[in-house]
Amino acid sequence: MSFVQNFPFFSIILAMFSGIISSVLSGKKARNLSLVMIAVTTALSAGTLLFCLRTGESYPYMMGHFPAPWGNEIRAGILEGVTAVFFGVVMFLAVLGGLDHTAEDVEENKLNLFYIMIDLMLSSLLALVYTNDLFTAYVFVEINTIAGCGLIMIRQKGRSMSAAIRYMIMSQLGSGLFLIGLSILYDITGHLLMSPAKESVAALAASGAYRIPMLVIMAVVGVGLAIKSGLYPFHYWIPDTYGYATPTASAVLSGLVSKGYIFLLIKIFYRVLGYDNLVSSQMVNVLYVFGITGMVMGSLHAIHETDTRRMTAYSSVAQIGYIYMGIGLGTQYGMVAAVFHIFTHSATKALLFISAVGLYEASGDKKDYVSLRGAGYRNPLAGIGFTVGSLSMVGFPMLSGFISKLLFATSALESPHKMLPTLIVLAVSTTLNAVYFLRLVITLYSRRRPEDAPIPEVKVRSSWHLRLAILCFIAVNLVLGMWSQPIVQAIADGLAMFG
Amino acid sequence: MSRRRDNYETSRWLRFKKWVDGETDPLSSGMDAIPVVTEGQMRERRKNLALRKAYDEELTRLSAEHADKTEIMKARGIRNFQKFYKVMSVILCLAIISVLLWTIAALPVTGGADNPANNEVAARYIEKGLQETGAVNIVTGMILDYRAFDTFGESCVLFIASCCVLVLLRLDADSKNDNIKKMIAESDDRHFEPKDDIILQKCACVLVPVIMIFGIYIVLNGHLSPGGGFSGGAVLGSGLILYLNAYGYKKMSRLFTEKVYRRTTLCALTFYCLAKSYSFFTGANHLESGIPTGTPGAILSSGLILPLNICVGLVVACTMYAFYTLFRKGGM
Fold first, then answer.
1. Residues from chain A contacting residue B118 (CB–CB below 8 Å)
2. Is the same domain home to B169 and B280?
3. Which has the higher per-residue pLDDT, A158 or B259?
4. Same domain for B179 and B100
5. Contact yes or no for B284 and A127 at CB 8 A
6. Among residues B56, B86, B105, which one ends one of the domains?
């Protein structure tokens, strides 16, 4: 066993350990530790990814002295590696970009608590990515939920309290449903580890025993994780949560937390329930319908919004709809498109939230359209960042959003019954995206008029962290948009390893 | 310059342009959830409360009275929506409950010998658990040795939950925020609490040592008899809370302050993390860990389980006590 194979375990434990240590550190030290830790874990994940690419296969890693069905186990493969690296990069840039606002929004003596949340959030995301055991997944879903609540309510201004309560209730509902699903699954298969559970599920499906519990498991696990990731009819917590948290928290929650749950759902679909069983049980069709409804309804809500942060939050509802539509297509290719859109959306949405910070700084912390008029001239880099993010969401060529839309459209061609609705809704949703995102971009680059209220003390230059983060996010978007082929290939290989 | 159309002011293009410029607010008309309540409507509402049956006639009469018909329609719409919402939520809950009950009926019978859950996993825990972990209490062996990673996650859940409560409820005396200073001044209600309650103190005098010793016993014997870190920690925590109630913060602060709380949690979790990391690392790389399991049944046996139980117990006790003090006014 080579030393590199230990890296997934190291990265999870390192993230948890820095969270524990941060409880006695000062805010500044906790912040530095957190940044260093995120960088190191990302490097470790990159090592894992390279190892898996070189050997071309996935491997299980025993957590302790006891082999799989008795002890805990994690598993690393290409898709896990890509996702972990990507989550690490987005987390690092989100924390870096929001540094100043975090220091402003969070009380000084509680700053270390904020970074404890960030550290444990990263550890739970990594554990959700690497886990090979359903109960381990549940434990880390809990950590993820509580850390998410903490990240929202630490701002203690405006409506962040009610947003946190709403998030907690919805998220706990999702966790509860997920747990019910796991209990039933354990009852009928006798396993919590994914690989043996999959074997028993396949045997049960072949013999036709326990058909009702199987159906309920699929529905309950699917809906539970869909609530937690904010799929359309269960999205009511999203706008407040993303709109009133501190910028880092908004970027992390919209870019990573919901994606972690979707990744877990894909993993359970492939590694436990069996994708063919889901397709034959019509569960994917339910997700598909929710997904395409969300694509349109999220955008319509976003058009109604006057607060630009809430608008960006509603656009997340639409984008989550895209991902579930890809999952719901029921083909391998649709799943690749969905996973690619996970990456696209987390890079782009984090870019939008972080660069919007620069624009608000240049507009006296106002978030409505009239105050933002001309902000693109006052803070050029943030303006460029927001424009790139908007164009990517709309699907402009060379940017990542274009590639995911292309993948969705081509994968729709493979499923004859769903081709027409998918293509129509893609077109409608893209137009709606363009309506609200380009409206904001036009606002950013139109001149202020004399009757507009004057802006109090404009901060012309943002700090170097923010500018660096925006530049890196733009670079990530361009990389995803222009060199997408190897990434798409890696996703396809990784999904094949899941199967 | 071309001539503008006569009806340019009302044209769609101008409205669209205004919307793009952010001048019009699509929410300003028709979307308001809160209707403007006039004196007349307040009266109407009170009447409605009294006379639910006569609701419709009332409404038409009032609408004739007040020219503002749309407001009443809106209020009625909201009320209807709320009724609809209540009914639908009840129906939805009943539907979910019945689906889950129906599922239970389809599950294997509880306690059946050939249930799927009675497989090689449980068999090995029962047959080889004692030999492999050295713990007489199989449950402890399972959660702290076979599946120790999950249990570490659980302790982190407690840790992060107490961090969240600290975020929410801790008031810092040296805070610069005026609002918080005011809250601290308001919240200091400790001198209103009954002090030196003789009955409580005498009872606590007898009970607290027993509770504490019992808690320590449960923690230390977690690998030998039913119990362990989680349950023993809860007993310890309740002992601390009882002592606090009987003797007050001043005496308690000699033993337990926020500093102590933080250090204990830190040490316990750090030890857990390092010890288990070592064990995971050696296990995964197939190295000898060199931790003896000892003779089963002895107090110093079963390798890491005893120290880990102590760690979990400390974390649980501290978290319980911290929750109690933070949910009262005034903090630790």
1. 190
2. yes
3. B259
4. no
5. no
6. B105
Q: What does the alpha-carbon distance between residue B166 and residue B163 come to, in Å, rounded to a whole number?
A: 5
Q: Which of B105, B122, B149 is the last residue of a domain?
A: B105
Check whether residue B209 and residue B291 sit in a common domain: yes
Nearest CA in chain B to A190: B117
pLDDT of A86 strictly over 50 = yes
Q: Which residue of B has its CA nearest to A448?
A: B21
**pLDDT score, position B327:** 81
B198 and B295 both lie in a single domain:
yes
Residue B5 lies in a domain: no
Please name the residue that has the structure tokens 């094949």.
A496
Contact A6 B281 (CB under 8 A): yes
Residue B1 pLDDT: 44
Residues 6+ apart with CB under 8 A from A358: A379, A381, A382, A383, A385, A462, A466, A467, A470
Q: Which of A160-164, A456-460, B218-222 has the lowest mean pLDDT?
A: A456-460
Would you say residue B118 lies in a domain?
A: no
pLDDT of residue B31: 45
Is A368's CB within 8 Å of B148's CB?
no
Residue B174 falls inside a structural domain: yes
- List phi, psi (to 5°) of B238: -70, -35
Give the count of domains, chain B: 2
pTM value is: 0.87
Q: How confident is the model over A214-229, as pLDDT tens digits?
A: 999 999 999 999 999 9
Quote the CA–CA distance of B284 and A1 in Å, as a whole number: 9
> What are A409's two structure tokens?
């459209």
CA distance A309 to chain B (A): 15
Residue B68 confidence class, pLDDT cut points 50, 70, 90: low
Q: Do both B305 and B230 map to the same domain? A: yes
- Whether B160 and B52 share a structural domain: no
Mean pLDDT of chain B: 80
| Residue-level length of chain A | 499
Is the pLDDT at B90 greater than 90, yes or no? yes
- Give the A window 223-282 contacts with B, CB below 8 Å: none
Would residue B319 count as lying in a domain? yes
Give the residue from A105, A104, A75 showing the smallest Cα distance to A7. Answer: A75
Question: Which value, to the nearest 10 degrees, does the dihedral of the CA atoms of residues B205, B209, B210, B214 take?
Answer: 150
Say yes or no: B84 and B23 in one domain: yes
What is the domain partition of chain A in residue ranges?
282-499
Structural domain containing residue B312:
137-327
Return all residues near B94 (Cβ < 8 A) that are at least 6 apart.
Answer: none
Contact assignment for A64 to B279 by CB distance below 8 Å = yes
How many CB atoms sit inside 10 A of residue B64's CB? Answer: 9
- Based on the domain organization, do B146 and B202 belong to the same domain? yes
Residue B329 in this model has a pLDDT that exceeds 80: no
CA atoms of A417 and A227, how far apart (whole Å)? 27
Q: Amino acid identity of A87? A: F
Residues in chain A closer than 8 A to B31 (CB atoms): 304
Q: Specify the amino acid at residue A8.
A: P
The interface predicted TM-score of the complex, written ipTM, equals 0.90
